Amino acid sequence: MKGPTIMTLALMMTVVPAWAGPLAPTKPSELVTIVSDGGFTRAPCFDPEAAVGGVLNRDGSTNPLVVPDGQVLVLLGGSWKSIGRVATGRLFHLLLRLARPEGGEVHLISTGGGAVSEAAAAGEVSGSFRLEPGLVLAPGTTLCARIQSLDIIDGVDVSVQGFFTKDK
Questions:
Q1: Do residues 146 and 41 touch, judged by C-beta distance below 8 A?
Q2: What digits encode the pLDDT tens for the residues 111-120?
Q3: How far apart are CA 156 and CA 39, in angstroms?
Q4: DSSP 3-state assignment of 64?
Q5: I need a labelling partner for 8 at 20 to 30 A (CA). Which of 19, 31, 85, 90 fits?
Q6: From 2.30.30, 3.40.50, 1.10.12, 2.60.120, which CATH number describes the 31-166 domain?
Q7: What is the pLDDT of residues 11-54, one digit of tens each?
Q8: H/E run at residue 10
Q9: How many other C-beta atoms can be found within 10 angstroms of the C-beta atom of residue 154?
């Protein structure tokens, strides 16, 4: 056969490209930064997890994070730093957990495997991470964070960037 069949031509004329919406903010002003609550644990996070639940304003103040109904917050990545001193020379990685107040299924995301950081002589450790293609935070869900070594779990300060979009 030398050319497309009649059926192929008919299908080509009826197929419409799909558009799922933006996978990134369309303007820099749409980028949102959320931060941990000063290393303090609050439900539904477990000790020593930090709840990442403050929206960082331009003036440096924070407001509680509220994901509006019908929207989600797509998290793209961020940075973290240990709270207080940790064991020098140990390797740490960040653990992120999505928690719902009523319990149920939770998702644990580890930044290990290339994103492991070694504690400095001063007993501090920090790192950065990317969440590709993005981690979706739905209304009523809390992002909980902690750092972990082989046998040590510790608190962490976290800053995460993302953007709001319509829930599909």
A1: no
A2: 654 455 666 6
A3: 6
A4: strand
A5: 19
A6: 2.60.120
A7: 333 333 333 445 667 777 789 999 997 656 677 888 888 889 89
A8: helix 6-14
A9: 18
